[in-house]
């Protein structure tokens, strides 16, 4: 059964580190705000290579990207 996790950075980092994540879904909302983010999502986690499995574009702008993660190295 698929499990989706939204918003729990510590849970997501733990699942990634344990090798329990089959796919990483990234949704891009193209906006320029003029400010720089300060908190990396996976700060302190391992390095992963991401293989693009699927992509979709909504409304001509927003993209949904589905990746398969593998530990880097």
Keywords:
three-stranded antiparallel β-sheet, 3 strands, mainly beta, 5-amino-6-(5-phosphoribosylamino)uracil reductase activity, 12% helix, 1 helix, 73 residues
Give structural notes.
The protein has a domain at 21-71. It is mainly beta. It has one helix at 9-17, and strands spanning 24-28, 48-58, 62-71. The chain has one helix and three strands. 12% of the residues lie in helices and 36% in strands. It is globular. Strand 2 (48-58) and strand 3 form a beta hairpin. Residues 3-60 form the Bacterial bifunctional deaminase-reductase C-terminal domain.
Topology (elements, then pairings):
Blueprint: H1 9-17, E1 24-28, E2 48-58, E3 62-71
Provide the helix percentage.
10-25%
Low confidence ranges: none
What is the residue-averaged pLDDT? 82
Number of helices: 1
Strand content: 35-45%
The gyration radius over C-alpha positions equals: 14 Å
Largest beta-sheet details? 3 strands, antiparallel
What's the shape? globular
Pfam families: RibD_C
Protein name: RibD domain-containing protein
GO molecular function, one term: 5-amino-6-(5-phosphoribosylamino)uracil reductase activity
Domain Bacterial bifunctional deaminase-reductase C-terminal: 3-60
Give me a quick take on this structure:
With 73 residues, the protein is mainly beta.
